[in-house]
């Protein structure tokens, strides 16, 4: 499903490059040559000057084709943060992490594959940030359930000159990171839905297609409803973020709602899609796992489902009956 507001020609180009070159070792270089690795970066710094809507379509296209790359981390998170903090930088594959008081960060996306890491750490009453070479920090390799690098990073912050950044910038990074994963989860759920429909339409059982069985129809309608709910909540958060340049007072609530909806939808979609496809859907040869396992992995990153449920509940109850609508429609 193409993101609303995206030029169809651009969406087709994104789909084509992943379809044709998704397994190529030089995919990143191809994406770079097309201006996609810094899609939202300012043109004066080598970016393509596009927006989050186009970036969301690019992430979704990668998910549809089972391609795992640090596009979001490099562009929407690390690259954006350097621009927002007015920090000078050159072209490199980057990720970003928020260190604890001891200079450590767990499960950092793509750290072991990055050339540079934008490290942020608490200092006095604010934060410091530095763009450091990956070789200058200690990285302990790890991975999530779909094999994407999720590494431990240790930085000797006492020896790294940092630039002062505000807490508001760090808070915005957290919301951007959370919304990135919501977009990716939605694309994975849509992929599982498409495979379920295709299988039910083509598989014949007892002399008729599976799609003719009412129980299967109910499963697929449930998958479609949950995927649509997650996408609706995510697109509402994305729209508010884009329209307000990430300054909407209700944005945290909308992102929390998107993550909560996407997280709970994942449980239903994964369960029912595997039930529709049966044993074949559990095999490595079938592509269903590219979507179901990805959704399960991503829904727990940058905040668990319980974290976002709790935040959403606290904000709703704190607003009370008379101010709840203002949270939903800021």
Give a description of the structure:
By secondary structure, the chain is an alpha+beta fold. The chain has three domains: 1-69, no CATH class; 73-165, Butyryl-CoA Dehydrogenase, subunit A, domain 2; 168-328, Up-down Bundle (Butyryl-CoA Dehydrogenase, subunit A, domain 3), CATH 1.20.140. Helix content is 54%, strand content 13%. It is built from nine helices and nine strands. It has helices spanning 8-21, 27-33, 52-64, 71-84, 167-202, 214-244, 251-277, 288-298, 305-328, and strands spanning 94-98, 104-109, 116-123, 126-133, 138-140, 150-154, 163-165, 204-205, 208-209. A hairpin with a 2-residue loop joins strand 8 and strand 9. Helix 4 (71-84) packs antiparallel against helix 5. One of its GO terms (molecular function) is acyl-CoA dehydrogenase activity. Its cofactor is FAD. It comes from Mycolicibacterium vaccae ATCC 25954. This is Acyl-CoA dehydrogenase domain-containing protein. Keywords: FAD, Flavoprotein, Oxidoreductase.
């Amino acid at each position: 499903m193409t993101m609303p507001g995206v030029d169809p020609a651009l969406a087709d180009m994104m789909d084509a490059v992943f379809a044709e070159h998704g397994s190529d070792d030089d995919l990143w270089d191809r994406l770079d040559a097309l201006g996609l690795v810094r899609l939202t970066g300012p043109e004066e710094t080598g970016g393509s000057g596009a927006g989050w809507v186009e970036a969301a379509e690019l992430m979704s296209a990668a998910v549809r084709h089972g391609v795992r790359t640090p596009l979001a981390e490099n562009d929407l998170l690390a690259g954006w943060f350097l621009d927002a903090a007015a920090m000078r930088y050159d072209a490199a594959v980057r990720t970003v992490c928020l260190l604890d008081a001891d200079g450590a960060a767990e499960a950092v996306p793509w750290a072991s594959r990055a050339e540079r890491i934008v490290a942020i750490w608490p200092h006095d009453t604010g934060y410091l940030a530095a763009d450091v070479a990956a070789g200058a920090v200690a990285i302990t390799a790890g991975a999530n359930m779909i094999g994407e690098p999720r590494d431990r990073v240790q930085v000797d912050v006492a020896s790294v000159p940092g630039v002062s950044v505000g807490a508001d910038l760090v808070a915005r990074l957290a919301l951007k990171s959370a919304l990135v994963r919501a977009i990716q989860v939605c694309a994975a759920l849509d992929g599982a839905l498409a495979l379920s429909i295709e299988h039910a339409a083509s598989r014949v059982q007892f002399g008729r297609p599976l799609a003719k069985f009412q129980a299967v129809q109910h499963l697929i309608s449930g998958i479609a409803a949950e995927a649509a709910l997650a996408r609706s909540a995510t697109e509402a958060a994305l729209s508010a973020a884009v329209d307000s340049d990430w300054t909407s007072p209700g944005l945290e609530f909308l992102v929390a709602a998107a993550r909560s909806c996407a997280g709970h939808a994942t449980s239903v979609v994964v369960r029912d899609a595997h039930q529709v496809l049966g044993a074949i859907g559990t095999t490595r040869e079938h592509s269903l796992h590219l979507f179901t396992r990805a959704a399960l992995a991503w829904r727990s990153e940058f905040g668990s489902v319980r974290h976002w449920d709790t935040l959403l509940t606290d904000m709703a109850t704190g607003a009370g009956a008379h101010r709840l609508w203002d949270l939903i429609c800021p």
